[in-house]
Amino acid sequence: MPPQTETIQVYHQFNKLPETCPKVPKLSKFNGHGLPLEYVAHYVIALGELAIGKSYLHRYFATSLIEVAFQRYSELKPDSVADWADLQKKFLDHL
Q1: Who contacts 67 (Cβ-Cβ below 8 Å, separation ≥6)?
Q2: Mean pLDDT of the chain
Q3: Could you tell me the sign of the dihedral formed by the alpha carbons of 29, 31, 32, 38, in that order?
Q4: How many of the other CB atoms lie within 10 Å of CB of 88?
């Protein structure tokens, strides 16, 4: 019997990276320990020019989470996150 796979919902639109920024910067990983508000500030700074486009902030946020932080993120209901501001609020409220 083949292993079961879960469908992972995507909470953002996929926008192509601008030609001036062909790669996503290397992001530090947040495990859920420490100060979430401070982590969000570091995350926004690390994205640099991509932080101007709110969809990029939203798109790459999950890739910077591990352990408990990613678990909390993955518990969000599909289509429950409207935009970057909403994601920040839900993230900070649940850690």
Answers
A1: 31, 32
A2: 81
A3: negative
A4: 19
Band of residue 45 on the pLDDT scale cut at 50, 70, 90: very high
Q: Quick: pLDDT tens for 67-95.
A: 999 999 998 887 888 888 999 999 998 86
Closest CA to 62 of 21, 91, 95, 94: 91
Adjacent-strand bridge partners of 30: 65
- For 87, the enclosing helix (H) or strand (E) is helix 84-94
Element counts in the chain: helices (H) and strands (E)? 4, 0
Distance CA 39, CA 33 (A): 10
Query: Which of the four pLDDT bands, split at 50, 70 and 90, describes residue 14?
Result: low
Q: Using CB atoms within 10 A of its CB, is residue 53 exposed (0-12), middle (13-18) or buried (19+)?
A: middle
Domain boundaries, the chain: 36-94
